Each structure stands twice: as C-alpha cells, then as structure tokens.
Amino acid sequence: xxxxNQNIRARVIRLVGDNIEKPDVYSLQDALKxxxxxELDLVEISPNxxxxxxxxxxxxxxxxxxxxxxxxxxxxxQKVVLKEIRFxxxxxxxxxxxxxxxxxxFLEEGSKVKAFVFFKGRSILFKEQGEILLxxxxxxxxxxxxxxxxxxxxGKRMIMFIAPKTSKKK
Length: 170
Fold this sequence. Notes:
Elements: E1 12-16, E2 24-27, H1 28-37, E3 41-46, E4 53-57, H2 59-76, E5 82-87, H3 93-109, E6 112-118, H4 127-140, E7 145-154, E8 157-164
Parallel strand pairs: 1-4, 5-6
Antiparallel strand pairs: 1-2, 3-4, 6-8, 7-8
C-alpha cells in the first residue's frame, strides 16, 4: 500500500499535485507542513523514483476512487462460459440435430462451444467419420459462430472449439 504522512522515510521528495503551485523537490518537513495547511494527506505515489514522488490529496477519497476504478474494470471484463457437446463417431441424424440445436442455443447466449467426438475401444478406427461430423457441425453453425480450433485428435477425443460471433447492434 501507499505510505502516508509520517510513514514516509525519504528526507527529500518530489511534490506534485493539483493543489501545488509549482511541482518541485521539497524536504519532507516542508511537504508535511504544506499538506497540513491544506488539511490533506501527503501520499507517496512512486517510492522507487529518485527522489520519491509524493502527492497532496485526501487519502480516503483516493482509496475510494481506486476501488471504484477497479470495480469498473472488473465489470467490463467478460466471463467466458464454455459449454461441451459430446458426439459418438456414429451419431445418427436425430441425435445430431438435437445436439445442433443445443450448440446453437449456447452460441446465441454468448458461450463458447467445445464439441468433441469420443472414441470408445475400437471406434478409434472411425477417426475420419468423427472429423466429418465435427466439420459438418462447424458448417451448420457457420452464421452463429466461428471455429477457433479445427478438429484435433487428443487421445480418445477429437476436439473442436467454436466461439460466438459478435453481434453488431445498430
């Protein structure tokens, strides 16, 4: 955290701020007197500078504004939700359509979709069928999402990621 008032250990400091008529290097005692006259706090902003940079401000207000800024930044970040859809290499048409509807719904909600074909036992022989199935899914969802990662075999799974397309609001 920041050092304030008596906790600052430097002998000389560079004083900056809105309420300072001329930013300059001051002794710690002079800077503390100026802060006391203005009924504000002397806060060490940049301790590693030579000499350390201090600012005369209302410390509680400063902390409040920092918390508020961090909260705004946190609110602006989007949380990415990843939904999984599992297929078998011989998924029939009805099951495919059912899972396609779910993938469409997930993309419309703004979630990423991780579609994968799970190969059990000897079904690994049907790698091509699994890849064709995933590529068909990507083609069917083309207008709702974009493929982030093409089908890739990892162990017994062939995985593909689809991210939602950003909607353009007018």
